[in-house]
Amino acid sequence: MKAIAAVVAFVMWVVPGAAVAGWGAIAYNSANGDSSEADGYESLGAAESAALGYCGGGCRIINWEQNSCIAFATGPGGVWGEGHGYSTSGAAISAAISYCGGGCGWREWACN
């Protein structure tokens, strides 16, 4: 176990930023319901571009994070909610569902 920890510490020292990249984003298209998430990127711009690319045309960024957790929920009638700035995916998902309201379910989450 100590050997594994030593290797991880060495890699983090030799390649700074490679061990944990801290940006993520969620994209959503309210017209067709498509959504996507991207996490583990080294910049906000890269995370947003990836989320938009995965989501497809007509999507927009609805949430982003740096070294935290975010989530997105949708419900009947086009309502949606988001949670951001949480330390766990569960907390972010709970917040997104709460802000969305009754009948909502989570669609996307991302943590770094």
Which features would summarize this protein structure in a list?
alpha+beta; 3 helices; 112 residues; disordered N terminus
Structural account:
The protein is α+β, with helices and mostly antiparallel strands and 112 residues long. The protein has one domain. The protein is built from three helices and six strands; from the N terminus they run αββαβββαβ. A three-stranded antiparallel sheet has the order 2-1-3. A three-stranded antiparallel sheet has the order 5-4-6. It is flat. The two termini are 24 Å apart.
**How many E strands?**
6
Share in helix: 25-40%
Strand order of the largest sheet: 2-1-3
- Flag low-confidence runs: 1-19
Summarize this structure briefly.
The longest helix has 13 residues, at 2-14. This protein has 112 residues and is an alpha+beta fold.
Topology:
Layout: H1 2-14, E1 23-28, E2 35-41, H2 44-55, E3 60-66, E4 69-74, E5 80-86, H3 89-100, E6 105-111
Antiparallel strand pairs: 1-2, 1-3, 4-5, 4-6
